[in-house]
Amino acid sequence: MTSPSTMVAFSLSIVVTALAALAQAQTPNVSLLIDDPYYYDLAQSLDVRSLLPFVSLRKGAAFHWGSTYSYPAAAEANWTSEKFSTYWGHIVAENDCKWYATEPERQDFTLSACEGVSQYAAEHFATFRGHNTFWHNQLPAWLPGNVTASDLVNNVIPTHVSTVIKSLGWNVTSWDVTNELISDTATYNMTSLECVLNADRWPTVTYDGGSTPLVTNLSFAYAAWRTALMYDPGKLVYNDYSTGAQDAKTECVFQLIADLNINASIPYNRMGVGFQSHVGAQEGYYVPKAELETTFARLAALGVDALVTEMDLWIQANDTINQRYQAAIWGDYLDACLYASNCFEFVNWDNRDDTSWITPGDGHGVAMATLFDMYGNPKPVTYEIMARFARYAEGAAEMCATALGTESCTVY
Ligand code: XIL
């Protein structure tokens, strides 16, 4: 006769199997371009750099496809150099151009690391984008300090923004002028000021989250943007995460750029909106392609660029179905950008899983969130990206959203 403990163990195993099946069911079975032998073979070289001129030709302007770099040299220097010669053609400094790195003491600028990244880009015939001139994180120790609101708006921000932008010169495609100003708990119908105040971040509150605001209006943002407009010949970008869908936070982005346009006199055709895109391969954790496209098109109607600025994409488990889901979602984001009339930059955040800032746990599944694995080896997504570029460069019409699953989309 079966003992009670065996029965319990047996029932538990059924529950565990059922839960595993449920988790698996949430990961759709997707179609990929690399399932087609033609694109599979074509993608094997991973030489995206050779396709980029043809991508740019079709777009009618240079298309920038890149990733992050930190000065002086990455741990895997040869690997990194090879990838920035063959796979990526565009570079952003992961940390070296941030405020703490560039102005560690007030008016005492150390721009060598930031310029070093730009130099590294030049050595690899890659283009460079600037990140960032204003953010509430990674500040130097002297900030927030005891600067007054008028000192911040009239001196501190203009000096910082102008010095950093000028030092990098004219070969920068775009600068993230302000980063992450908007609240995660924004609601529809908030004004741009409310969208920012609701975020409870310096300088609209004291740095410790206390209730005493340093500034009570958006004068700090206007100061950063007006300064950037004077010194940056490239696009001026508002960059944020958890944006791109039809939702209240994205609505706040539209409110904010309208405010900058009206009150800081920033022309729409000098502006871009950066969608960081730190996303996950699970429904609800990424923006479906149709929603991204709607948002990009709404910006295009204003004359504003859309940029994907920091893409990484965690997966729930490191198995084939999840790796394919990752490839489908990344492919959809890339297609959304490629087929948009106003998207010319697509930047991935961290080059490989062993150096990614996205780590397992903490709602990030098993992480594995970059385009190359722990050992620098390619994954399905790495090849799928190459295939998507090839298909676009060939002049093919836009295809379906693959992340929706096989039932909704068959790739030709
Ligand atoms: C991250 C870097 O990747 C980390 O190395 C650093 O410790 C923290 O910042 N949004 C941004 C990026 O705009 O600058 C952040 O980069 C990731 C989130």
TrEMBL record:
Residues 1-25 form the signal peptide. It is an enzyme of class 3 (hydrolase). Belongs to the glycosyl hydrolase 10 (cellulase F) family. Residues 76-388 form the GH10 domain. One of its GO terms (biological process) is xylan catabolic process. It comes from Calocera cornea HHB12733. GO terms for molecular function: endo-1,4-beta-xylanase activity. Keywords: Carbohydrate metabolism, Glycosidase, Hydrolase, Polysaccharide degradation, Signal, Xylan degradation. InterPro entries: GH, GH10, GH10_dom. Transmembrane segments: none annotated. This is Beta-xylanase. It catalyses: Endohydrolysis of (1->4)-beta-D-xylosidic linkages in xylans. Its EC number is 3.2.1.8.
